[in-house]
Every structure is written in C-alpha cells, then in structure tokens.
Amino acid sequence: MTETSRPARTRRSVWLERHRRPVGLAAIAIALGLAALWLVVVPEKAETSTGVASWLLRFGHSLCWLLLAATAALWTARAPRRAIDLTAWAALAAYGGFLLALWL
C-alpha cells in the first residue's frame, strides 16, 4: 500500500460535507444569537474599568461570537482555508482579550 498525502474520509466528514449548508447556517444563527446575548450580559467589572479594558469587557465576548459567525459563514461558502483560519484566530484573540480584561 502506498501512503497518500490526504487522510481517508471518515463517515463524519462525508456527512458534514453533505450537510454543509444547514450545519453552517445553524452555526451562524447560534453564533449571532450568542453575540447578541453577550451585548446585553456584561460583567459587573465593566462599570468600574476604563479604556481598552472597559471596551473589551463590554464588547470582546460579542466580537468573538461575531467572528465565529463569520468563520461559519466562510466555511459554509467554501471560502479559502486561509480566510476561515484568519477569522477563527481573530475570534480566539478577541476572547483572549476579553479574558485578560476580566482577569486584570
């Protein structure tokens, strides 16, 4: 047997590929709903903080979910992997900033 550069497709990956649009749309809807929720639910610490920390506490978590919705939209639209990765890493950075502001 020769080794290929691509791993064998599993049942899960085949199912996901077949149902890309409904799965992607569901992920987008959930992420947008959570982004809206986190605009309303703000840590109490945001009231006493100022500057960038205050902004991150108020909007960082929502920004993370918006970026995850963008990631899901790009994945659903079969965008280049680089664009998908970029938005996913940006979401992680936004969440990291939110957690850092919460911790400080």
Poorly predicted runs: none
Mean pLDDT: 91
Q: From the alpha-carbon coordinates, what is the Rg to the nearest angstrom?
A: 18 Å
The percent of residues in helical segments reads over 70%
* Classification by helices and strands: mainly alpha
Major β-sheet annotation: none
What is the strand content? Answer: under 5%
The geometry reads as elongated
Distance between the termini: 56 Å
Helical element count? 5
How many β-strands, per DSSP?
0
* H-E string: HHHHH
Task: Produce a short descriptive summary.
The protein is an all-alpha fold and 104 residues long. Helices cover 79% and strands 0% of the residues.
Q: What can you see in these coordinates?
A:
By secondary structure, this protein is mainly alpha-helical. Helix content is about 80%, strand content about 0%. The protein has five helices and no strands. Helix 2 packs antiparallel against helix 4 (about 50-75) and helix 4 runs antiparallel to helix 5 (about 80-104).
Label this structure with key terms.
104 residues; 5 helices; mainly alpha
Helix/strand layout:
Layout: H1 11-18, H2 20-40, H3 45-48, H4 51-76, H5 81-103
Helix pairs in contact: 2-4, 4-5
